[in-house]
């Protein structure tokens, strides 16, 4: 939809346009929402969308029935997801052959197609409406709600759904001080990791006098497995942009920058489009809505390093220097981008702003715990049944998130741990499942909120191996400047690797702990200061498992290759020869119809024989 | 002027002073490997750690990069600081044992064991040479490449740079290669021996008598007497 609009000169112009757009939208209240996010794209959602377009056109329905290619709808596992509005009938795993039927039956006649309904793996029930599905029912989708209704490439959609109303209100009815007070009262805390109060950050920058100030949106999102920020930018870029403009107005900036990692080309394109649309309407530029406020926004592409998400490294990267953190203070509010006072906010933090301004701090504070208000988006991945983005009130317990929303552990396995907070977060055991997820509780438990990654692990996960995985990531991603961080992480990794090979001692475990504390204490930036978390938290909750590796040379989860053995049970083996054929190391011998055997010295412990055997004759010990 | 508390002492320093400069000025010794008065602070070696703040909110920061702030409480030798410094030095020994500077510092702080696997790196990436070249020689002939554990110092495109005038400033300032320690053998990374060699020579008092007789340094030909004779 590329309607050309003329520049809005006053708030009345904006209201008039909004009324018009609302009316248009009501006239087209029947529409198909096809999920266009990466998760569903993998399953072929683009073909589904294109086919729907053709179908509607062929049937002459294109003028009356809408079609939206939306941001993430949630249940990524069951993609491609299609929701039929206005009833909100939820179809999953839709393929192009289903499209015609959906249009004929559901869209035109309101009939439900049984076969495409979502079958909940836990309750075993089929659900017609999205709102009834347990995955959605427990969520509180404040920020993600508009993903269902919004075409992210259409500013018209955003405006019709009250978009830029908060900005208009802020600009015409509130002083910067009032805006900051509202954000402070909302107790909003930064969603990028540290949980710093957003209002206080803005106030600090507002108080500084300078000829130029900047506000930067941090969309670096380098945590493996996390995609909250990407989904917000791709699903509803205008909400983030609106938050950024309001923030800019509040602190007295005239320029905003969205810093996006290079790996997110779609998000970059969507944000650029959103900026262009806002400029065309005069929501960005000079003398916005006749208020005298000037503001422009540009996009800066990240250098692709995890550490560039750290604010001082980010500033260096935007300035075109090497993305390395520096000592703070001086804080960014004193000396930020181009040495001017600067505020950096996370994508999700900014996406909360329009809601807070529109509904007020009091309403915002109804959700959450005493010190952590509002909702938080988690990307729930790993060994849970329902993977995807979930948005819940802060303070919901891990159990509710993993078992009620996530549907529990895959393949009937046991829950072992959940890793929160990204690479430098920590793994929490089953005994903490009932603790609420808010900033304080997670830190007290030795993990952190981080940006909201949540990786669920089952009984077949080795916690020492997990510590190794995250240390490897951090070893590569440290900028390498601090000796404590560079050499410290590398030595922690060395020691953890020794443990996974059964080449360690209890004394080394103590040394590992000692080193971990020093790395945490003596590094310059947040990366080094949190790099010990994967080690400390796994030792704290799973020391038994470390000791099994060290003292008994045994990996209880059967993951660490050096510590496991494969053998064949002669009684069960039928001599079918399948494992022999599949073994990449040629480590299996045996005559046809005779019991086979594994040659220990050739075995690479890949486990293929175990997977291949139909008679359960391969044993892992 | 800014007022702060340094090891219990009320002091005042000019705005822009770093904690390291303040401590030095008041005669408190803080070990450093990557700092030099003539170069910009870099904060890489982490040996200059000090503890700032009080109670539960106290934390360690590198004094060479941390600016003095009004009302700040700074302690340079708390248990927490000393333990961190010692462990870091142990790591330095385990990484780059052939540096005399590191060996001396380790003996001085009483680091007597190395519990990590032994490596033999040539460079500790303190960045002194890079800053020397850029800030004092206007050279920019060397710089850092890559990040994390792959970080290295090299000339652009790993060739001798056009900017290099062979001034030797980089080698002069390097704590790892300027004074090679010959002591430790491959198997024992600590030598703890050579500190005694350099101390007794009274470089600054031309007329003073040396009370060390015989003196190890002079015997080895590095002491004042030996120099005076030649
Ligand atoms: C190593 C490291 C990586 C980080 N990566 C990100 C990131 O990808 N996105 C983000 O928003 N914040 C990241 N942060 C946190 C930011 O430094 C900063 O706290 C945040 O962007 C501030 O915004 P907020 O107050 O809205 O959370 C990172 C911090 C560290 C130390
Ligand atoms: S001297 Fe301060 S970090 Fe090296």
Distance N to C terminus of chain B: 50 Å
H-E order of chain B: EEHEEEHHHEEHHHH
**Oligomeric organization of the protein chains:** heterodimer
Q: On the 0-100 scale, what is the average pLDDT of chain B? A: 83
Largest interface: A-B, 34 and 37 residues
Q: In terms of structural class, how would the helical and strand content of chain A be classed?
A: alpha/beta
Mean pLDDT of chain A: 94
Report the top-level CATH class of the largest domain in chain A.
Alpha Beta
CATH homologous superfamily heading of the largest domain in chain A: NADH-ubiquinone oxidoreductase 51kDa subunit
Radius of gyration of chain B: 20 Å
CATH fold-type name of the largest domain in chain A: Rossmann fold
Count of alpha/pi helices of chain A: 23
What is the CATH class of the domain at 128-173 in chain B?
A: Alpha Beta
Strand portion of chain B = 5-15%
Number of DSSP E strands of chain A: 19
**What overall geometry of chain A do the principal axes of the alpha carbons give?**
globular
Structure description:
- The complex is a heterodimer of chains A (621) and B (230).
- Chain A contains 23 helices and 19 strands.
- With 621 residues, chain A is of the alpha/beta class.
- The termini of chain A are far apart.
- The model of chain A has no long low-confidence stretch (mean pLDDT 94).
- Chain B has 230 residues and is of the alpha+beta class.
- Among the domains of chain B are: 46 residues, Alpha-Beta Plaits (2-Layer Sandwich); 33 residues, no CATH class.
- Chain B is built from eight helices and seven strands.
- In chain B, the strands form two sheets. Chain B has a five-stranded mixed beta sheet with strand order 2-1-5-3-4, sandwiched between helices.
- In chain B, a hairpin with a 6-residue loop joins strand 3 and strand 4.
- Flavin mononucleotide binds next to strand 10 and helix 20 of chain A.
